[in-house]
Amino acid sequence: MAVTTDSSLKARAGAALAAPVVWLAGLLNVPLKTWQRATGTGGMAAFFLAPNMAIFGIFVLVPLVINFFYSATSGTAYFLQDRTFVGLEQYERLLDCASYLDPATCREDLFWKAVHNTGLFVVLQVALMTLVSVITALILNREIVARSFWRAVFFFPVLLSPVVVGLIWRWILQRQGLLNFVLYEFGGEPVNWLTERSWSIAAAICVSVWAHMGFYTLILLAGLQAIPRDLYEAAEMDGTRPARVFWRITLPLLMPNLLVVIVLALIRAVQIFDEVYVLTGGGPGTSTLYLTQYIYEIGFASLLRNPGLAAAASILMGLVLVVLTLIQLQLGRRGERKAARE
Amino acid sequence: MSSIVTFLSRRRDGRSWHWTDIVTWVWLVGGLIIMFGPAVWLVGSSFKTPGQLAEFPPTILPYVSQKAMVEGYDKPLTLYRVMQPDGSTKVMAEVRRVGIVAQMVDPEAPGEIVKVNISERRPVRQIGFATENYVEPLKKNDFLLYLRNSVFVTLTATLITLFTNSMAAFALSKYRFRGRDLVMVLIIGTLMVPLSVVLVPLYSVVSAVGLFDSLWGVILPTVATPTGVFLLRQYMLTIPDELLDAARMDHASEWQIYWRIILPLSAPALAVLAIFSVVWRWNDFLWPLVVLSRKELYTLQVGLNTYAGQLNVQWHFILAMTVVTMIPVVLVFVFLQRYITSGIAGSGLK
């Protein structure tokens, strides 16, 4: 009884809160009906699309188009009309290198440093991410007690903001932090996790894997659960060894999801910024300076501000992302076609 | 006890243990520690005093030093347990400290000042929470302002997102018109344009329309989410057209159809989008960092980063404010996690 009063109270409170909105919506009906009579249902489609497409056009499409103009101008001003047209000079400047393998020989050595760092980060992070997510998904797919609890455990950091992730780990990895304390308890020497070159790179990779692996695990788990049970039962009846079951049934059937995960992880890794920026600030030196931070600093923060150069760099990065996204869409379409056939 | 062990070691299929079961449990328990441990450590540390945060090795629980009023002194003095030459310990109060030597008094005999080497004493303390870590930055610093800005940005952006995205999704799912496919291609196409690629031109567009350094400049560029339109459209496609036709027979206007039929029926998809939008907007960092320059407009994320980037990091405040920043997301996680996981598993959106 008490429960029903409570819920009806809640419903009444909700209705009271919604009342002004409903009233407003009713009021809107009068002019909109006139509009509908004047333009027909086609006009109504335009009306429904208008707010979203206006915002979309101004804040997504226009910037996308004028980015190309930016990359063809120079100067420190932000408004296009105050900038000088220089053609492809910014791209020439970015790509002016004696050897692409050695950033020091490039005119924009910082850009190439960021490209190299990002490349290394992408390869190692995606490899580690895929490995950890696959293992976790396989384990979560077993017959375990309280599966949804364990799934939530691995998913938890996905929701945290990158700033929170960066700060949590900065606190743990600092010289007097928890990790060095654990090392000390086991008799080890403290390590400067965030101020030593190679450790800072490892920290950036591990922290970003920590923060995002739950997301990929979830996709892989959905893929594992979609594998028909009877395949496993048949394999068991034939007495197939578990390793063989994995290589011959699980892995091939998981492959579409695995590919999607790898491509998604690649797309995200190329754009890595927030959590590493908060964690290391790109340091020590430039060892964890990645492309997005380079674009941000050349575009806004640095004394050597050069929005044209930042725009050119962002377009080069965008090209990589477009290629990766096209692969992803292709994979998705192939998956759909396969599903349609079945 | 043994029944607990039997319960935990019981397997659904009733078979005996295999080495993979051990790997499973090691991985799960290790995962529990690695995933939750850092956040738990953060919360624990956020209640420690600055002095305690600087300690190494750190204590697991937060402690506060005990203080006592001593006759002849205006302020309460910190108590220490001092090693006596004969090996026993005695509680004494510190008057002042010069280098490694502390001048201390016995609370029972306050007249006489004793010089003690600081290596021969330990503070007297008990478990306690330094709640001033939370109160002070909210009161003295601008964190209350940042919190308000973050709440405003999150709620406003989510409302506008729900409204505009659902209208667009309605048009794209229930009307046939010229250019519909083009609009869809444009929307899907921009899924591949992340913020970092249009950072510079977006900044100049936002400045040109006069939204630079304002909260609306943070909100508006984020609300026309292609994922939102896509998610809602997919859901609305499953609403039967006959329902709409029946309403039209009853002389309902198109607006009423949207408002009275489509929106209530799309409630599950709207809920998923709302949850995602709240998490996205609450966590946004790079764009607010670029577009906000006045300190009083900072969101929590930008404010936290600014304070954490100072030369002399005040960790006791930073940790407490990090916990505050984490709270809404943890609430979403605890109560609404299954909507999010089903949303991701269903559509791969994040």
**What is the chains' assembly state?**
heterodimer
CATH topology of the largest domain in chain A: MetI-like fold
Strand-residue proportion of chain A: under 5%
What name goes with the CATH superfamily of the largest domain in chain A?
Answer: MetI-like
Assign the structural class of chain B, choosing from mainly alpha, mainly beta, alpha/beta, alpha+beta, or little secondary structure: alpha+beta
Terminal CA distance of chain B: 43 Å
Which percent band covers the strand fraction of chain B? 5-15%
The whole-number mean of residue pLDDT values of chain B reads 83
Shape of chain A: globular
**How many separate helices of chain A?**
12
Q: State the low-pLDDT regions of chain B, or none.
A: none
Please count the beta strands of chain B (DSSP E, at least 2 residues each): 8
Classified in CATH, the superfamily of the largest domain in chain B is: MetI-like
The major beta sheet of chain A can be summarized as:
2 strands, antiparallel
Largest sheet of chain B: 6 strands, antiparallel
Coarse morphology of chain B: elongated
Low-confidence residue ranges of chain A: none
CATH hierarchy class name of the largest domain in chain A = Mainly Alpha
Total strands of chain A: the figure is: 2
Greatest interface and its residue counts? A-B, 98 and 98 residues
Q: Could you describe the 3D structure shown?
A:
The complex is a heterodimer of chains A (342) and B (350). Chain A is 76% helix and 1% strand. In chain A, strands 1-2 form a two-stranded antiparallel sheet. The two termini of chain A are 50 Å apart. In chain A, helix 3 (109-140) runs antiparallel to helix 9 and helix 4 crosses helix 7 (197-225). By secondary structure, chain A is mainly alpha-helical. Chain A has two domains: 2-66, no CATH class; 89-341, MetI-like (MetI-like fold, Orthogonal Bundle), CATH 1.10.3720. Chain A contains twelve helices and two strands. The mean pLDDT of chain A is 85. With 350 residues, chain B is α+β, with helices and mostly antiparallel strands. Chain B folds into three domains: 2-45; 64-127; 134-347, MetI-like (MetI-like fold). Helices cover 59% and strands 12% of the residues of chain B. Chain B has 15 helices and eight strands. In chain B, strands 2, 3, 4, 5, 6 and 7 form a six-stranded antiparallel sheet that branches. In chain B, strands 1-8 form a two-stranded antiparallel ribbon. In chain B, a hairpin with a 2-residue loop joins strand 5 (101-106) and strand 6. In chain B, helix 5 (143-174) runs antiparallel to helix 12. The two termini of chain B are 43 Å apart. The interface between A and B is large, with 98 and 98 residues.
